[in-house]
Amino acid sequence: QKEVEQNSGPLSVPEGAIASLNCTYSDRGSQSFFWYRQYSGKSPELIMSIYSNGDKEDGRFTAQLNKASQYVSLLIRDSQPSDSATYLCAVTIILTGGGNKLTFGTGTQLKVEL
Amino acid sequence: DVKVTQSSRYLVKRTGEKVFLECVQDMDHENMFWYRQDPGLGLRLIYFSYDVKMKEKGDIPEGYSVSREKKERFSLILESASTNQTSMYLCASSFRKNIQYFGAGTRLSVL
């Protein structure tokens, strides 16, 4: 089982719709969760971080975390063509012997169609 | 704003060459990371460093080494470049709560 799993997509949504991106993780001890957006040929940029169960909203973006189900999601409201990108889920994984590292999923490609 | 600068956007090298990729951050971050990104494989951690002169192996360290002589600079070294090291290389730095900030990336082609 991969440590962080995402559906690779592409996920296609019409402009103005809600895009829902999902991520599951394997380490029950994970404490920090992130969503990065990556445009083709560019580097990842952080768009949301979430550390406790529930929802966190920032503009058109909402991150949702459910630690019991080991599930984190990203909702994008009023999707725009400029949201078309690959979205990477990242989770801290606790290392044996202490410490932690950030582990990335392989990303979900989102396409927002006119 | 956090600024992570990678020395080159594109590099073309020959098999067997020694290759240096440089990364500099301007936010006094303790933690720095090197990843490579390949289609279908996502971001894979090569090496990381939590302090000056300190280094830890990531998931795929074979064929690579690193150097961190100063806090702001983290270098990735390919001792003898091979074609399977053709990839996008990304440097990142972080300070707290594991939020990592990425440089623009270096696309390396080894011929």
Care to describe what's here?
- The complex is a heterodimer of chains A (114) and B (111).
- Chain A is mainly β.
- Chain A has strands at residues 4-5, 11-14, 19-25, 33-38, 45-50, 54-58, 61-66, 71-76, 85-94, 100-104, 108-113.
- In chain A, strands 2, 4, 5, 9, 10 and 11 form a six-stranded mixed sheet that branches. A five-stranded antiparallel sheet of chain A has the order 1-3-8-7-6, with no helix packed on it.
- In chain B, the strands form two sheets. In chain B, strands 2, 4, 5, 6, 9, 10 and 11 form a seven-stranded mixed sheet that branches. Chain B has a four-stranded antiparallel sheet with strand order 1-3-8-7, with no helix packed on it.
- Chain B is globular.
- Chain B is 0% helix and 55% strand.
- Classes of the chains: A mainly beta (114), B mainly beta (111).
- The interface between A and B is medium-sized, with 20 and 18 residues.
